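Sample A.
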Amino acid sequence: MRHGGDPVVEPAPEATGSYVSTTEILEREARLLARRQLSLPGYWRRFVRRRVAAVVVIVALGVAIAVLSPVGVAGAVRGVTALLLLLALATAVDHWVVRRRVFRAHRVLAASACPPGTVVHAHFTVEELTFSLPGHRIVLETSSLSRGVHEGGLLLLEQADGAVWVVPDELLGALGLDVARAGLGHRLDER
């Protein structure tokens, strides 16, 4: 308490940080964003529907062959089994290709937003997070953030409008995560 009974108001926590963007940091960011996209509810729905439809067509074809052709049931079962194995192999390859494409797309986006060698400065307060890059400045009000996830040396920030921002620990510095924690409160998930 001060003289006169006025309470002492503690200053709001603040932190600053800066770093130089590297390919290693961009790779971490791209992996996190790709994992996030691939785990979104419904992302794989269309992929699965197409494979299920292909299985139904193959089984129906096998039944038709067993009933209508002289191959018989045993021949139809062997044919259906071979086609289902080929479909499983094609599905595994497609799954791998989709994951690689998504990762590559996020790597390109991350590198174009902040190319290796870019110096980034940040100022963190409980009310807003400010990022300064050559040529522009980004200010995120913590009230506009629907959630944050700190995982694998990265802080992922999601805005209510769906925009996503990734802040590496190298930029958070020693106190940046503490300030973000204070600003986000229960909306921050630390893994």
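Sample B.
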Amino acid sequence: MINIYYYFASKNNFDGETLKPRIPTNKMKCEDDIIKRICVSQSINGCLTAVGLFNIGDIIYIHKCNSNNAMQPSTEQVGDACFTGEQWILESVRMELFITVTIIGMIAADINNTENIMYSFKLIEK
């Protein structure tokens, strides 16, 4: 079985930690509130946009993880999933720090009557 890599963005560094599925505290009002999950994307831009709570100057930790137990939510479950590529991992997964970035710009976009923020970022050298 091939493991698929996903990206997870956070203001916290979860390197080496195992995250458990849960209902996100920062979900959209109409977003699913029953399925416990870890929200990820197969792109860095997608995972930044899916979180959508960053400001210019924020330092963001981009983690990678792999799982064979992910699902693609419908647009009824996540209105902007077609834009962010958000997927849900339904099992506990170990996070590995991939890169650290700082947010340097923001662009507003309206997708499915939901405002999304796309981010430009700069890699922070180790």
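B remarks: The domain at 4-123 is CATH 3.20.170 (ADP-ribosylation fold). The chain is about 10% helix and 45% strand.
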